[in-house]
Amino acid sequence: MRHHGDAEVGAGMVDLAVNVRAGTPPPWLAERIAASLVGLSSYPDGRAARHAVAARHGRPDSEVLLTAGAAEAFVLLARALRPRRAVVVHPQFTEPESALRAAGHEVERVMLSAADGFRLDPSAVPDDADLVVLGNPVNPTSVLHAAASLLALARPGRVLVVDEAFMDSVPGERESLAGVRDVPGLLVVRSLTKMWGLAGLRVGYLLGAAELLAPLAEAQPLWAVSAPALTAAEACVSPGALAEAAEAALYTAADRAYLVSRLRAVRGAELPVTAPAGPFVLVRLPEADLVREQLRGMGYAVRRGDTFPGLGPQWLRITVRDRRTVDGFLNALATALISHPGR
């Protein structure tokens, strides 16, 4: 459950395992962050960044809680909430369940099936679940659930947590719930680390009603988000940055389409998601565990799938990269499959 893509990548390897956009952070952002270091002797003041994030989503400041990445948001949820019946929809990012279990909560799993493309059936979630957590678009399946399907899960007395860490990689951020303010119990988790290459800085935020965020803020340590991270947050929601992110999302969509077309031509490869929407693709391959190890030997890192509940060793998650990188990877994959054609 605590295995993540960074564990797959060794020195000098071509990284198709970590879902951080290549070539980031851009120089203008790195310069803004570097300039903030002169103020490190002062305690962080998050008001300007909070206001900027709130304005970006059309919300009052009270409906934003800045966090040290999305991972801290899940820890705060686990510490502050007291669910009677917590449900996590899988396959998905494992940190929400890990945080809940670490805080002493029992967790039930709703498993989506590859047979129907990992699509969400809201009726599969127990009616009396008072905490439901799921992603959109989903890591690792790359499924983008319809907003209407997610909203069908909302009901009085339930906290509905939607992890939108990769939503800024979706052109137009279609199906996002970040601006929805009239659904009681809705909390949206966002991350700035994937699009902007800030995994080492840790910056994200929660969006939701002020009364829902208040106990989470009380559970958060003082000054949890550093001054450089606050600078980055404010910069990444500026009009220029949003325009750059929108353009990057279009490039990612085109590169993903190319990766998918090449993978569909690979003998034995199965892609159950017909329209992947994230900056990664999930594929099932014969002897994928052995293939992954051989790819490592050829200098290519991909993400193993068996650490995600609901998947197994036959699954790999592949990050979207530029076409030249994809071509090199697919050549290496073809060689690996010759050695391991399937049992």
How would you describe this protein?
With 343 residues, the protein is of the alpha/beta class. It has two domains: 118 residues, Aspartate Aminotransferase, domain 1 (Alpha-Beta Complex); 202 residues, Type I PLP-dependent aspartate aminotransferase-like (Major domain) (Aspartate Aminotransferase, domain 2). The protein contains eleven helices and eleven strands. Strands 2-8-7-6-5-3-4 form a seven-stranded mixed sheet, sandwiched between helices. It is globular.
Any chance you could write out the topology, listing elements then pairs?
Blueprint: E1 14-16, H1 27-36, H2 47-56, E2 64-67, H3 69-80, E3 86-90, H4 95-102, E4 107-111, E5 131-135, H5 147-151, E6 159-163, E7 186-191, H6 193-196, E8 204-208, H7 210-219, H8 227-236, H9 239-264, E9 280-284, H10 288-297, E10 300-304, E11 315-319, H11 323-339
Parallel strand pairs: 1-10, 3-4, 3-5, 5-6, 6-7
Antiparallel strand pairs: 2-8, 7-8, 9-11, 10-11
In short:
With 343 residues, the chain is of the alpha/beta class.
Features:
seven-stranded mixed sheet; Aspartate Aminotransferase, domain 2; alpha/beta; 343 residues; 2 domains; 11 helices; 36% helix; Aspartate Aminotransferase, domain 1
Profile the largest sheet.
7 strands, mixed
CATH hierarchy: architecture of the largest domain = 3-Layer(aba) Sandwich
Poorly predicted ranges (pLDDT <50, ≥5 residues)? none
Q: Could you report the average pLDDT, rounded to the nearest whole number?
A: 96
- Helix run count: 11
CATH homologous superfamily title of the largest domain:
Type I PLP-dependent aspartate aminotransferase-like (Major domain)
Topology pattern, helix = H, strand = E:
EHHEHEHEEHEEHEHHHEHEEH
Through-space gap between termini: 27 Å
How helical, in percent, are the residues? 25-40%
Tell me what portion of residues adopts beta-strand conformation.
15-25%
CATH fold node name of the largest domain: Aspartate Aminotransferase, domain 2
Structural class: alpha/beta
Number of separate strands: 11
CA gyration radius, whole angstroms: 20 Å
Q: Categorize the overall geometry.
A: globular
Tally of structural domains: 2
* CATH class identity of the largest domain: Alpha Beta
